Amino acid sequence: MMRLCLFLALTLFSLQARCDDCYYYWEHQCIKITDAGQRALRQYVLLSPSINYLSSQDGQSCDAAVAEKQSPVNAQLLERFNNAASRIKTCQTPITELKARVYDKPGMATWHYDRSRKERPGKTVVMVSPLPVL
Description:
It contains 4 helices and 5 strands. Strand 1 (21-35) and strand 2 (40-47) form a beta hairpin. By secondary structure, the chain is an alpha+beta fold. Strands 1, 2, 3, 4 and 5 form a 5-stranded mixed sheet that branches. The protein has helices spanning 2-18, 62-70, 74-86, 106-117, and strands spanning 21-35, 40-47, 52-55, 100-103, 123-127. The longest helix is centred in the first third of the chain and has 17 residues, at 2-18. The relative contact order is 0.23. The chain is 38% helix and 27% strand.
């Protein structure tokens, strides 16, 4: 019985500790099909200039904490991303929703961010800044 109580206490503590640190960034993609037969695409990635940190409160999940904090600055974010997108011929459709990419582990956030940031043939990355901080 004591082992069970200890296990439950450690599990609850680890869940609470895991949700305290949140890492997020914003990303939007525009894709243009250049040759459907060859499956050739032209991809434009609009990306925030860095990974941001947020500490969640009251055991709140990282997704919920970032969404709650993003809500007041959402109009600014959309305006900045739409301004950057308007300079790209492929991205003429206005962005109406921008959801943050959220992670609870810094290594995962860095890996995904670096992968999004890496340019390659057929892929262009556009950094969008300055962006509001949550």
